Amino acid sequence: MSWADRVSPVVKAIPPSGIRRFFDIVAEMKGVISLGVGEPDFITPWHIRESCVYGLQKGYTAYTSNYGLLELREEIARIMQKDYRISYNPRNEILVTVGVSEALDLAMRAILSPGDEVLIPEPCYVSYKTCATLAGGVAVPVPTTMDTEFRVTVDQLEKLVTPRTKVLLIGYPNNPTGAIMPKQELEAIARFVQKHDLIVIADEIYSLLTYEGKHVCFAGLPEMRDRTILLNGFSKAYAMTGWRIGYALSNPDFIGAMTKIHQYTMLCAPITAQVAAIEALRRGEHSMQEMVAEYNRRRRLMLDGFRQMGLTCFEPKGAFYIFPSIRQTGLTSLQFAEELLKAEKVALVPGDAFGQSGEGFVRCSYASSIANLSEALERIGRFISR
Ligand code: PLP
User: Fold this and answer.
1) Which residues pair with 141 in a beta bridge?
2) Is residue 335 included in any domain, yes or no?
3) pTM of this prediction?
4) Which atom of ligand 1 is found nearest the CA of 100?
5) What are the φ and ψ backbone dihedral angles of 363, each rounded to 5 degrees?
6) Total structural domains in the chain?
7) Pfam families, per this entry (predicted)?
8) Residue 367 in contact with ligand 1 by CB distance below 6 A
9) Does ligand 1 have an atom closer than 6 angstroms to the CB of 246?
10) Which regions in the chain score pLDDT beneath 50?
């Protein structure tokens, strides 16, 4: 038996990430403009980095409580109260995690029994289905379309809900489409969730990156606080991807169950990152808003650029992605991305990396300088008009 034969069949069955596969190729090439990776191009603001340096000088180098530093949990509770008027008890309703990635994994593992179904609106972030599968669940994609601006509807959900459905996983503002959900539509979803007695995992990592009005927090809707495991983090809004820090909020039973796994597998999130996260929440608003304003300028540039090329493009309302349709080129998403890379050295992500309903689209991240984006648009325009 080879070593490969001994890898768990569950893991073997997981398809390789559509994003990674593509960027392994890009890493080998020179002169490529990459609009592929979903990562801020800013460095973490200095005052946040500095707080970490001070923390180290003071000797903050040990494990923290499994739940995370109480001071950080108190700051998270304060922000939730200030921004959305939702109360969470810092002692047992907040868990600090290693990025939203860990929180997502823990939420699935804490809730799912083998065969439980998880409704996942698509196109969606690449980890959702894999986390559900690894936790023993069954991912049930709910395809959304550009006609409904990639917002999931109750009709779409009603068609796919079964007695085995346990969780609805929603992620708005959405990666890869940039879609957001207005309050009224979320309220309809909340009624659906109540009717079928489902648990909601709400990944709101892009909540601060909205360009048309304030984000609506799902846990803030009537009756939804305890039913929802709310996930958020610092990677995107504060340009802190490498610090690996996120958090989960919910009722004490769900947070307790997640913490039980976390205390055996991770112990705690890095203390250095927790100290920096406290600073981000206390004094990071101004620098965060400056970055958001810059993303908004870039969003307009990309939207106008794609529309001028004649591509149908839904106007993204949040996050830092734009998701133009490339159907009129007659190419599949993968062919478009591969041929564009070869011909013009621009890297995008084929839409089908985010599920079947992403076919016919490509995802471009505009977390890149205006100069890079302008050059990329020129190259894409040239490619399309060949
Ligand atoms: N959720 C979404 C929708 C994302 O786009 C990402 C990262 O791209 C994550 C979660 C993971 O975030 P973190 O860096 O906090 O693990």
Assistant:
1) 120
2) yes
3) 0.96
4) 15
5) -100, 125
6) 2
7) Aminotran_1_2 (PF00155)
8) no
9) yes
10) none
